[in-house]
Amino acid sequence: MEKGAVIKHDLKKAPKTGDWGYMSPKVDKSRCSGCATCVPFCPEAAISMVKDPEAKNNKGEVSSFDYDFCKGCGVCSDVCPMKAITMQKK
Ligand code: SF4
Ligand code: SF4
Q1: Among residues 5, 25, 55, 81, which is most buried (max CB within 10 A)?
Q2: Nearest C-alpha to atom 6 of ligand 1 is from which residue?
Q3: Which residues line ligand 1 (CB under 6 A)?
Q4: Which of 8, 71, 78 to mutate to test the pocket of ligand 2 (most atoms within 8 A of CB)?
Q5: Which pLDDT tens digit goes with each residue over 67-81?
Q6: pLDDT at 8
Q7: Which residue, by CA, sits nearest to atom 2 of ligand 1?
Q8: Are 85 and 23 in contact, with CB atoms under 8 Å apart?
Q9: Looking at the CA of 37, which ligand is closest?
Q10: CA distance 59 to 65
Q11: For residues 53 and 40, what is the distance between their CA atoms, to the nearest angstrom?
C-alpha cells in the first residue's frame, strides 16, 4: 500500500515563491489544535509545526509559515478544521 509523504524543500534549489502572493496566512494560536492537518496540504511545503508557549493544546504546538515560500493561496485556511488560519493582505 502506498503511503503519503510530506515533501520538504531543498532550500538550495527551490525558488522562493513568497513574493508571488498578496495575501498571507496568520494563525490564531488560541484556536490551533496542533492537528497538523494544514501541513501536507500546503503546495509549497511552507508549513511546519513548532513548539510555542502560547499554544492552547496538549501538544504545545502551533502551525508556523515560511513566508519565503508561502504564495498566499489560502488552502491552509480552507482545510483547517478549527478555522484557526485567516488570510490577510500583505
Ligand atoms: S489545521 Fe488548523 S488547527 Fe490544525 S495545525 Fe493547522 S492551523 Fe492548527
Ligand atoms: S497560503 Fe498556501 S502557500 Fe501559504 S502556507 Fe497556506 S497553503 Fe501554503
Answers
A1: 25
A2: 38
A3: 27, 32-38, 63, 80, 82, 84-85
A4: 71
A5: 999 999 999 999 999
A6: 72
A7: 80
A8: no
A9: 1
A10: 18
A11: 24
Per the listing, cell 494560536 goes with 29
In the three-class reduction of DSSP (H, G, I as helix; E, B as strand; rest coil), residue 79 is classed as: helix
Task: Give Cβ neighbours of residue 15 (< 8 Å, ≥ 6 apart).
Answer: none
Sign (positive/negative) of CA torsion 86, 80, 4, 62?
positive
pLDDT at 1: 60
**What residues does 25 pair with on adjacent strands?**
87
For residue 3, is it left (φ>0), alpha (ψ between -120 and 50) or beta? beta
Q: Which CATH class is domain 23-89?
A: alpha beta
- Global pTM? 0.89
d(CA 79, CA 74): 9
pLDDT for position 36 = 97
Res 2: pLDDT:
65
- Cβ-contact 63, 76 below 8 angstroms: yes
